[in-house]
Amino acid sequence: MSKAVWIYSFGIVAVMVFGYIIHLPLLVLLAAIAICLLILFSSFETATCALFFFAAFSQIIAFKEVNLCILPAVSYIVKYVLTKSIRMSDLYAFPILIYCLIFANPSGTMKLGTWIYPILLLLPIVICNATERTLYPRIIRSFMAGFVLAAVIGFFKAKIPDMAVLFEEDALYISGVETTLNIRRYAGLSYDPNFFVLTDCILISILLFSSKKMRTSELLTLLFLVVAGFFTFSKSYMLVLAVIGIVYVLKNGAHVLHVAGVVLCCAVLVLLAENYTSIKVITLINARFTTSNGLNDLTTGRLSIWGTYLSYLGKNLNCLVFGRGFNAFSLRKAVHNTFLDSLYRFGIVGSALWYVHLRNCVSAVSARFSKANKKNWMPAAVCIALLTFLSAFHFQQLWCCICLVLFSLYQTEEEQDIATEHSGSGLQRGLHTAALRGQHTKSNLYGF
Predict the structure, then answer these.
(1) H/E stretch holding 167
(2) What are the residues whose beta carbons fall under 8 Å from the beta carbon of 133, sequence distance 6 or more?
(3) Spatial distance between the Cα atoms of 27 and 23, rounded to a whole number of angstroms
(4) Is the pLDDT confidence value at 419 over 50?
(5) Is CB count within 10 Å lower at the N or C end of the chain?
């Protein structure tokens, strides 16, 4: 996006956040309209980057408790229909929506807001069909910029002193002591810390595994994402982060100085927090894991919840095959497993339809690359692992996470170089592409 568009976008965010903080929904509504106008009347590349940038603020784009994040998505789809050629994979959305309508739960909620989630999940195929591979790094940068900005705003919204106290409260809660502070865990501008963790870890894995040499801006972004994740107090975040770190060290063992620099920066931050602030990171990690009694306790009761849903599906064959309805209420508690949640809501038939939809998205992206391109599986592995421990169907940014995983899947360094040169002259691009065929080059496009 150009400087003018960035300034315009930051202005919209300022108006939207101000309206959200002072509880003036009209300002938020005006900001949502401004986003739609930007998407409708800008170039397709700018519209796509803007869609991802503002997606990080989906939770606060609301008017009188009605979430309006569907408006930018619909604007983008309208722009796509009017300016691009519709493909057969785009039309596959209709069978899914019809299935959702036919097998909707009559006793569940049928509000307009309920339909936001399946419609948003159909957005990735439109984006995958509409964008070229040279735009993928810019899309990732745009979303990362929005996410970091939303996370910073979220820190002020969460009140840092209260968050520091939460470390102590959480340790007491784990040890069985009842507390009355009632301080919410940090979640950025998301309403659930686990949703924040999902996006945070995907971006961390993209930064670490999509290039071998990070710029200073990328390193600072990485450190911020790591620190922000700790404020969620999520055990799954700590486990996934540890696995990401181990894989990174094993994969980049030859680049000793690079690995040592990243590890040293993280260690210094942890030690400073442990010794000079009330944020006892080491103490927290120790308390989160050593006080758990058994796997069910370690997973915060998830194993027993999964057992409840599996038992229900086993006793209700109709639900197992066709689902209880995308709008069905949860059993006792949220299932905390996106795959099991899909089986509960859509059944085997509906889940198969969603699987084909995702396969279409993968095929649309893969068609733009050759089989010789190396794949970066880490963001996908991180996404799948975390979806196992949370119910992301009602997460407004799930479609973003799917696109980020797909767009980073083939982002080898050669492809980043091509994208970097895409804005140059045709002769420059031709010479650069020819050079890539003869030798391996190093570059990085994920920095701001």
Answers:
(1) helix 160-174
(2) 365, 368, 369, 410, 415, 419
(3) 9
(4) no
(5) C
